[in-house]
Structure formats: C-alpha cells, structure tokens
Fold this sequence. Notes:
The chain is α/β, with parallel strands linked by helices. Helices cover 39% and strands 11% of the residues. The radius of gyration is 24 Å and the shape is elongated.
Amino acid sequence: xxxxxxxxxxxxxxxxxxxEAYVKxxxxxxxxxxxxxxxxxxxxxxxxxxxxxxxxxxDADIKCxxxxxxxxxxxxxxxxxxxxxxxxxxxxxxxxxxxxTSLHTLRLGANKFRDGGVITLAHALSxxxxxxxxxxxxxxxxxxxxxxLAQVLGSNSTITELVLHGNVVDAYAVSxxxxxxxxxxxxxxxxxxxxxxxxxxxxxxxxxxxxxxTLATLDISNNRVTDTECxxxxxxIATARAPLERLNLRSNFLGExxxxxxxxxxxxSHLREVFLGFNSPSHASVEAVINAACRSPxxxxxxxxxxxxxxxxxxxxxxxxxxxxxxxxxxxxxxxSEMEVAEQTMEWEKAWAVRHRYESTDRWxxxxxxxxxxxxxxxxxxxxxxxxxxxxxxVKLIAxxxxxxxxxxxxxxxxxxxxxIRPQVSNL
Length: 428
C-alpha cells in the first residue's frame, strides 16, 4: 500500500504525489516524517511552520523537505527558524530554490549555517525569481556572508524583505549591502536590529534612505547608535527619495540631538510608524517629537516608551489634533504636587472626551502606558492605565474589528514586520 492509502487518503487528496515523494525521501534517509509537513501540503494553507520543536530539525530532515519542494510547488511559506540547520541543510535548500517556483517566504533564523551558508544561498538567489521575503536572523552572519548576499541583491528583482536581525553585521558589511541596494527597485523592508552598526554603518544607511526609490521599513534598533551618526539619518528622512514609512530606532544611545532633528523631519516625511523607546532624550526633545506628531497627519504609531515626560499636555494635544493616530507607547508622567496631578488628570480626561466625540466606530485608538506598554500583545485593550504621578487613570478606548495592533515591545526591538498594513511589530 502507498503511504497515502495508509493515511486514508484517496486519489482526490490534494498533492498526493508530493506526500509520496516526501515519505519516500524520509525512508531513504532514515528520518521521521514531520506531520506538520504532511498537514501543510494536503490542506489549502500552503504554509508550513517547523519552529520551536522538541526535537530540532537537522540537515537530513531538511534534505527531505527541500527534495520534495524541488519537485513540487506545494508551499508558499516555509518557516524553519530555531532548528539546527548547517551547511548541508542549506545546500539542500539552495538546490530547491533553483527549481521551486512557488515559495515566496523563507524563514531560516536561529540556525547554525553562518557565512558559508549565506554564500551557498546567494548562488541560488541569483537564479530564483519568486522568493520575496528572506529571514536570516541570528545565524552569526558577518561581512563575508553579507558581501556575497549584496552581490546578488543588486540584480535580484524579487526580494522585497531582508531580515538580518541579531547577526554580526558591521559598518564594512552594511557598506556593501547599501551599495547594492542604491539602485534596487525591489527592496522595501530592511531589518538590521541587534548588530554592530555604530559609526559609519548608519552613515551608509542614511545615504540609502536618501536615494532608494523603494525602501519603506528600516530597523536599526539595539545597535549602540549615538546622536553623532543618527542625526545624519534623521536629516536624510526629510528629503528622502524613499517612501520610508516605518523607522525603528529603539534601544540605542540617542539623545536630544536626534530627537530634535527627527521632530523637524517628521511633518515632511512619509513616516507612519516611529519607534524611539528606551533612548535618553531630554524632556524638551521628547515633547518636540510629540508636537511634530500633531502636525504629521500620516503618522499612526509613536513609541516613546522609556522616555519620561513631565506633563501630559503634549500627549493630549496629539490625541486631540491627529485624528488618524491610533497607537501610542509611553511611560507615565512625572509631576509634583497633588494639585498638579489633578490638573494633569483632568486635562487627559478632556482630551479623550474630545477624541471619542469625533471618533468613528470603525476605528480605535490605543494608548499603552507604563506597565501596560510592557504587556502589549496585539489584542484590544480593556482599558490601559495612564499614570499621572502616583495616580492611575483608566481610559476607555473605542475598539473594533480591523484595528491596527502592535505586538510586544520586546518584539519591536527584534525586527519590524514587512509592511505598514501588517503592523504586528513581528517580530517589532
């Protein structure tokens, strides 16, 4: 009996030939079949996730999956993050990419193939014409691997998202990457969080932002970036050729100079989502950014979590003036006397009363404050708390289906999701 027959599958079972091919490869190599793979190729989902397994996938397992996908175009998305894929496994994936014409998303994060594996992949990407999203995060990839990848990206016209989060990418590596992307008409989402871009690396990215015709997302969170180089990037945003819509500068060493520069650029930019949390700006420069957000009708999300404010007025002005704004992450307000607390609380209540009066029921606004901002999980809030001094004010928010949502701020510092219309900060 065939394997399909033993599983109760008949001749009408979708992709029965692919199932048979996969099982045959597993038998030949003496590895156990992944039920997730069988389920994915016999259902309409066309997406297979093989992450966080009790028994991680190794090269032999990958060889079976890739061998089947080399023959049959039965998946659009393959996620094998967090396994133990090394050079032989990557070689199997590379050979598959040379033939497969359906896969558009490939997530290879947190494996063990390093620079050598990226060089192998680069050869396959030079002939593949369907892959659009490639995640290589947390693989100890450095200059050699990025340089090989850059040589391909310059001519590849399909890859729109590249995730290199949590590697060892430095200024040398990013210089080759930016040079390849200067004239790229495909790259839209570039994720470089948790690397080593401090210094000249950011200067190369500033030039890319200024000249790229397509770049929409840039994530350089947790890169030890300082005001000295980042102000060049924020200056570039105001005159950027790129329609940059999502910028993640979280958890760097940024202060007043960068925040002030960004405040000047924000009303003239395309930015819809800006993440500035856990930096060290002055109170005045944080207020300058909030005031600029009031004059930026395109802005939807602002993260200033970890940046203290001394008064609630700028936030209230933002709530009242920008009717499209729908997500704010911030800390509490630090103020002194009981009278000041009462005044700030009353002002906050009035601001939300005005906002709700004009808010249509098919939209909702979010404000995550203090401890609530640490727990944002993407679902509608039942009433996040706003802290004014030691007092807690419950704010009732309008919620409805289809609202913009943001995932955990810890995710924000990992990497941004691929597009402004899917703002699961996805890793944000």
